Hints:
Oligomer: heterodimer
Order of helices and strands of chain B: EEEEEEEEEHEE
Largest sheet of chain A: 6 strands, mixed
Radius of gyration of chain B: 13 Å
Number of strands of chain A: 12
Order of helices and strands of chain A: EEEEEEEEEEEE
Amino acid sequence: xxKVTQAQTEISVVEKEDVTxxxxxETRDTTYYLFWYKQPPSGELVFLIRxxxxxxxxxxxxxxxxxxxxxxSSFNFTITASQVxxxxxxxxxxSEADSSGSARQLTFGSGTQLTxxx
Amino acid sequence: KAGVTQTPRYLIKTRGQQVTLSCSPISGHRSxxxxxxxxxxxxxxxxxxxxxxxxxKGNFPGRFSGRQFSNSRSExxxxxxxxxxxxxxxxxxxxxxxANTGELFFGEGSRLTxx
Lengths: 118, 115
């Protein structure tokens, strides 16, 4: 069975600090997909990134960067120079692939509440 | 373009009643998924519909059901409500199944309180 662990329940930083959100996953599949979503107070989940299991290249998007390491089953998310607007709950998620390579439903971690203080 | 619309946003029911929640996906999206979010269990997958067919189902009792219409709008129904069904129910749509985009567009959810 697949599982996603986000050990950090809450993180509080001061604006402009860098912060890394940890995500560790478990799966028996060799083909799977990893995601990060952001949930602001409004409730809707906002897609941030998707990575395939066969693509370990790290990615940077503005102040966001993701470090995918299959050797440690981790997919960590770093926000550089955090801002108050980054305050939200961040979810890491995993989806295994079916026989056709299609992603199945998402298994979410428990989320990390990030608070960025001014 | 309009996002995913869920109605109602808030509702209160009593134990034993039934409830129907509605979701209108983004125009052109044919896949709709439903998730339940609670403080204790977090986000859990309920089911996914694609072209009016249920493609995947999570580990929820038969009291939870859903359907999708020809215009891709979806409804989920919970019968014989229990206190533990109090949750935020999130609907998400995608252009096709998760395979091709991996990007789900979520609505703001329907917050159900069962008294």
